[in-house]
């Protein structure tokens, strides 16, 4: 070819195939290639051996080709073969090539005729070949033989489709002439993947074995099942010739003589035979590469750009350089600190849109989970009144008290304050868990250095655990401080005078009756007999819960007042897996239609907790199991005289007022205490002390030892990068506008259907002269 750049195309694709095969991505860019398909014993191996001029492929009965063989033919003065898996070793004896193919096949598939899609890369250098790359695929079969899996037919079909389904792949469909072309496995599967026949090249073998009086002229003239690229006939060596070690050069001479002397083929002898097939494949593969070059260049550039950022990190990379290790350690620890702070404080870059994480989850703990736990602990009306009643009676002893004892108030308040410890400790535990999860997420970037990641995670987690005990001690100290002095002079405390005038209903009155507290979707679970579960759009205000058909809030379905409502946990429905909770009326009234309670479901437990916290803000509290008294009599059956009942109500209002003050203070102090003693302290530790701890924990050199996976990934990435860069460099030198060989035109077979006198004259039936001085059979 006149354009040297175009001559470099096939070697270029060979280099790319080698580069991608070595890193397990041989098909990633859909490189232009030719795949050889056909049934078993169709003559595929003989065609390839004729190209090379050597016997080098395994032979036998059944499936012989059990792994794809990427055969790269390179025109060269010397003659030898190389395998990609045996780098640096040159095979000059082609019998050894056959043995190596068999051994490499058995290494992956075993000796039981199994197959594998992992290719073997073989490159053959020879003066007798043109630059050409083909992929020899296993022959199609119908029946499993011996130890083959029963689905061997479908396994082979799937493997073939992996290659020929790609638009960049030309299909060399090999069919023996002594079988019915309409039943050809190769043409059938090619037709499925290439309905227009634009990528398929037909090869007809065993023309010399057809029954006497028959020929394949109509097929070769492209009249029967025409293909865009036509058919080429070849004559391979017979099994007797192969067993007798007949020379391939002599076989090619016999093939040439066959076409020139056969009356049905001599008029097209110049377009038949192995040499013509090889030249045609070289030309068509080159033109096919040229046609796909723009898309290939675009993909190469895209891949290169995606790798450049990572490759920049490895410029002048020296794995064992102490200075590099020290610098890398410092950078990674600094980046770890930045990532940890961003996850806690929030950041606009790399926002997680799938779930809450880090600081957002901790914020939910502070302002939804913790207040919910406090209210659950606080409101247990009947038990509280029973305790107040017992406290008043026990303080008065045998006497009947005329005045409300303040000692009863202090005793009840202190008991309620002690109950604050459990939700406070639970809050700390939840925050600890989120911090540890955040540390693990941030150390993912240290995966390249497993020892460094493990040590960093250990040191930071240990420090957080140390701060956990100090934080819990501080929180317990806050509770003990509250217990040490009951400040009845607090400005927000109602005092005895006001407590006697207030009722429980007044104390629960909502300050902002029209405030919208929450909007969102909930599912109402109703029994299957009554219509199943339905999704509605809910609006919760301080006075009512309303639901609508959708979020446009146009069609209101129901409005439920919040008076006398409480929450309880509910089991998941029979047909539902969503977390569920229930709303019921404490006065045993129907809540919705004829239902005593309605069950509401969310997509996640976090949403359930969030809705419960919203109901608490609206004054709807969770139910608590009511214990029985010592004698087994229910608490609500206790009778009280009017004077005692007034005293209980007074103490109850006082306790409610004071606990409200303390809860407000605790809700404010808990996040501040945890932030100061644990979270901010952890951030400070990571920035200022983590590096020193890592230096003191052991050998810094061992900390910065790369994982084997990372070293392999870096090497593969660099190989890929250089292969892509080299490919783009070569492609950049190619001028696709000045190609000496145009793409093959559509096959013009109109002369076949017209006057026979218009046909080209038949070639004279003269003997073929083989010149011994020829340097190549293909010249």
From TrEMBL:
<keyword id="KW-0493">Microtubule</keyword>
<dbReference type="GO" id="GO:0031623">
    <property type="term" value="P:receptor internalization"/>
</dbReference>
<dbReference type="Pfam" id="PF01031">
    <property type="entry name" value="Dynamin_M"/>
</dbReference>
<keyword id="KW-0342">GTP-binding</keyword>
<keyword id="KW-0505">Motor protein</keyword>
<dbReference type="GO" id="GO:0003924">
    <property type="term" value="F:GTPase activity"/>
</dbReference>
<dbReference type="GO" id="GO:0016185">
    <property type="term" value="P:synaptic vesicle budding from presynaptic endocytic zone membrane"/>
</dbReference>
<dbReference type="InterPro" id="IPR000375">
    <property type="entry name" value="Dynamin_stalk"/>
</dbReference>
<keyword id="KW-0378">Hydrolase</keyword>
<dbReference type="GO" id="GO:0005874">
    <property type="term" value="C:microtubule"/>
</dbReference>
<dbReference type="GO" id="GO:0098793">
    <property type="term" value="C:presynapse"/>
</dbReference>
<feature type="region of interest" description="Disordered">
    <location>
        <begin position="738"/>
        <end position="779"/>
    </location>
</feature>
<dbReference type="InterPro" id="IPR001401">
    <property type="entry name" value="Dynamin_GTPase"/>
</dbReference>
<dbReference type="InterPro" id="IPR030381">
    <property type="entry name" value="G_DYNAMIN_dom"/>
</dbReference>
<dbReference type="Pfam" id="PF00350">
    <property type="entry name" value="Dynamin_N"/>
</dbReference>
<dbReference type="Pfam" id="PF02212">
    <property type="entry name" value="GED"/>
</dbReference>
<dbReference type="InterPro" id="IPR019762">
    <property type="entry name" value="Dynamin_GTPase_CS"/>
</dbReference>
<keyword id="KW-0597">Phosphoprotein</keyword>
<dbReference type="InterPro" id="IPR022812">
    <property type="entry name" value="Dynamin"/>
</dbReference>
<dbReference type="InterPro" id="IPR011993">
    <property type="entry name" value="PH-like_dom_sf"/>
</dbReference>
<dbReference type="GO" id="GO:0008017">
    <property type="term" value="F:microtubule binding"/>
</dbReference>
<dbReference type="GO" id="GO:0005737">
    <property type="term" value="C:cytoplasm"/>
</dbReference>
<dbReference type="InterPro" id="IPR027417">
    <property type="entry name" value="P-loop_NTPase"/>
</dbReference>
<feature type="domain" description="PH">
    <location>
        <begin position="515"/>
        <end position="620"/>
    </location>
</feature>
<feature type="domain" description="Dynamin-type G">
    <location>
        <begin position="28"/>
        <end position="294"/>
    </location>
</feature>
<feature type="domain" description="GED">
    <location>
        <begin position="648"/>
        <end position="739"/>
    </location>
</feature>
<dbReference type="Pfam" id="PF00169">
    <property type="entry name" value="PH"/>
</dbReference>
<comment type="similarity">
    <text>Belongs to the TRAFAC class dynamin-like GTPase superfamily. Dynamin/Fzo/YdjA family.</text>
</comment>
<keyword id="KW-0547">Nucleotide-binding</keyword>
<dbReference type="InterPro" id="IPR001849">
    <property type="entry name" value="PH_domain"/>
</dbReference>
<dbReference type="InterPro" id="IPR003130">
    <property type="entry name" value="GED"/>
</dbReference>
<dbReference type="InterPro" id="IPR045063">
    <property type="entry name" value="Dynamin_N"/>
</dbReference>
<dbReference type="InterPro" id="IPR020850">
    <property type="entry name" value="GED_dom"/>
</dbReference>
<dbReference type="GO" id="GO:0005525">
    <property type="term" value="F:GTP binding"/>
</dbReference>
<protein>
    <recommendedName>
        <fullName>dynamin GTPase</fullName>
        <ecNumber>3.6.5.5</ecNumber>
    </recommendedName>
</protein>
<keyword id="KW-0963">Cytoplasm</keyword>
<dbReference type="GO" id="GO:0005886">
    <property type="term" value="C:plasma membrane"/>
</dbReference>
<keyword id="KW-0254">Endocytosis</keyword>
């Amino acid at each position: 070819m006149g354009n040297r750049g175009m001559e470099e195309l096939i070697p270029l694709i060979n280099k790319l195939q080698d580069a991608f095969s070595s890193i397990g991505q041989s098909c990633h860019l859909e490189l232009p290639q030719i795949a050889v398909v056909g049934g078993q014993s169709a003559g595929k191996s003989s065609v390839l051996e004729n190209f090379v001029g050597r016997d080098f492929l395994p032979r036998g009965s059944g499936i012989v080709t059990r792994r794809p063989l990427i055969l790269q033919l390179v025109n060269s003065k010397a003659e030898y073969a190389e395998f990609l898996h045996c780098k640096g070793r040159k095979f000059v004896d082609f019998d050894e090539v056959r043995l190596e193919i068999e051994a490499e096949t058995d290494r992956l598939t075993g000796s039981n005729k199994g197959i594998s899609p992992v290719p073997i890369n073989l490159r053959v250098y020879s003066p007798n070949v043109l630059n050409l790359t083909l992929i020899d695929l296993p022959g199609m079969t119908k029946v499993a033989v011996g130890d083959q899996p029963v689905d061997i037919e479908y396994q082979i079909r799937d493997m073939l489709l992996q290659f020929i389904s790609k638009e960049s792949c030309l299909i060399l469909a090999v069919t023996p002439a002594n079988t019915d072309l309409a039943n050809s496995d190769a043409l059938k599967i090619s037709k499925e993947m290439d309905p227009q026949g634009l990528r398929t090249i037909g090869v007809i073998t065993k023309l010399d074995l057809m029954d006497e009086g028959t020929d394949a002229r109509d097929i070769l003239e492209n009249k029967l099942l025409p293909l865009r690229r036509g058919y080429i006939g070849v004559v391979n060596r017979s099994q007797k010739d192969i067993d007798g070690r007949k020379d391939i050069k002599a076989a090619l001479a016999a093939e040439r003589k066959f076409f020139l002397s056969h009356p049905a083929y001599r008029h097209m002898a110049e377009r038949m035979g192995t040499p013509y097939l090889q030249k045609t494949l070289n030309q068509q593969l080159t033109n096919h590469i040229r046609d796909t070059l723009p898309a290939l260049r675009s993909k190469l550039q895209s891949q290169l750009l995606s790798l450049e950022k990572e490759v920049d990190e490895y410029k002048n990379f020296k794995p064992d350089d102490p200075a590099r290790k020290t610098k890398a350690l410092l950078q990674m620890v600094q980046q770890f600190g930045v990532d940890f702070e961003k996850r806690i404080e929030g950041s606009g870059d790399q926002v997680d849109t799938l779930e809450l994480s880090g600081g957002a989850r901790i914020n939910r703990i502070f302002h939804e989970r913790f207040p919910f736990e406090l209210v659950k602990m606080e409101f247990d009306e009947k038990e509280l009144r029973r305790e107040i009643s017992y406290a008043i009676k026990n303080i008065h002893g045998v006497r009947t008290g005329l005045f409300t004892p303040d000692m009863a108030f202090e005793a009840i308040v202190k008991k309620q304050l002690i109950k604050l410890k459990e939700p406070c400790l639970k809050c700390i535990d939840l925050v600890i868990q989120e911090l540890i999860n955040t540390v693990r997420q941030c150390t993912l970037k240290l995966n390249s250095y497993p020892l460094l990641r493990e040590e960093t995670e250990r040191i930071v987690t240990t420090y957080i655990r140390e701060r956990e005990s100090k934080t819990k001690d501080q929180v317990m100290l806050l509770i003990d401080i509250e217990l040490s002095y009951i400040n009845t002079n607090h400005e927000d405390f109602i005092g005895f005078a006001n407590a006697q005038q207030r009722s429980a209903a007044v104390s629960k009155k909502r300050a902002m009756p029209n405030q919208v507290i929450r909007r969102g979707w909930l599912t109402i679970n109703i029994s299957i007999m009554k219509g199943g579960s339905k999704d509605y759009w809910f609006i919760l205000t301080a006075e009512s819960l309303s639901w609508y058909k959708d979020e446009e809030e146009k069609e209101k379905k129901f409005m439920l007042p919040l008076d006398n409502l409480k929450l309880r946990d509910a089991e998941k429905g029979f047909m539902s897996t969503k977390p569920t909770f229930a709303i019921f009326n404490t006065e045993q009234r129907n809540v919705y239609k004829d239902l005593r309670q309605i069950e509401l479901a969310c997509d996640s437990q976090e949403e359930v907790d969030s809705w419960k916290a919203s109901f608490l803000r609206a004054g709807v509290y969770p139910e608590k199991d009511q214990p029985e008294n010592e004698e087994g009599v229910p608490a609500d059956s206790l009778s009280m005289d009017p004077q005692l009942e007034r005293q209980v109500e007074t103490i109850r209002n006082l306790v409610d007022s004071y606990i409200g003050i303390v809860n407000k203070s605790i809700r404010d102090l808990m996040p501040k205490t945890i932030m100061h003693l644990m979270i901010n302290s952890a951030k400070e530790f990571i920035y200022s002390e983590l590096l020193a701890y890592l230096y003191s924990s052991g050998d810094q050199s061992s900390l910065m030892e790369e994982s084997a996976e990372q070293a392999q990934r870096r090497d593969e990435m660099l190989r890929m990068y250089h292969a892509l860069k080299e490919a783009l460099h070569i492609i950049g030198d190619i001028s696709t506008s000045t190609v000496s060989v145009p793409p093959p035109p559509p096959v013009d077979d109109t002369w076949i259907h017209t006057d026979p006198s218009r046909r080209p004259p038949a070639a004279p039936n003269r003997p073929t002269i083989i010149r011994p001085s020829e340097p190549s059979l293909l010249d």
